[in-house]
Amino acid sequence: MDVHKITADKYFPKGIKDSIPKSVVIRRYAFQAVFAVFTMAFIGYFSHQPVYHPIDENHALIKVSFSHPGERKDKCGTLTKEQAKGMTAKERVRSTLCSRERVPVTLKIDVDGKTIYEETKQPGGLSKDGASLFYNKDFVPAGHHEITVQMRDTERTEGFDYEHTAKVDLKPGENFVIVFNDEKGRFFVY
User: What's the confidence (pLDDT) of residue 62?
Assistant: First the structure.
């Protein structure tokens, strides 16, 4: 017995396949072709229209994105002989006492003397021993600007520990990024 004949007979009982008029078959293929062309045209049109501009015309974007750990909340100290006396040898290996908790970090951004962003972020982590995370986007008019970035990562209440001022010419649609490099201890602007 022929396998192909059994399969064909199972799905198309004898006489059914041959009884479909050719005009119906042609109409089916024509409809499928029209539907495929319409679907491709629909997808093609909406992949290019409407035109999307993430930044308004005549504006630029100032973006801040970095993480920075503040100083430790408590200063580290060494164990006294009396404190070390009550400890095991394994505990004495750690001869310094340090709190893991860190201070919050404050970031301030001024554009032409006007503050556009100022926020204090708490340290991350369960023990508040991680870095403070900063991410912000602000739109400003394109043109010449003086941008000042200031950050405080100590317990002081007045002034800032780090400061950077840059005179920039922002073009329409430009994405201006501010980051802080922990190794070099300074801000970088791109």
Answer: 95
Interatomic CA distance for residues 92 and 36, integer angstroms: 76
Q: Are 152 and 106 contacting, i.e. CB atoms less than 8 angstroms apart?
A: yes
Measured between alpha carbons, how far is 142 from 158 in angstroms, rounded to an integer?
A: 32
Q: Look up residue 36 and give its amino acid.
A: A
* Residues in the chain, pLDDT under 70: 1-19, 92-96
Residues in a beta bridge with 78 = 96
Termini Cα distance of the chain = 76
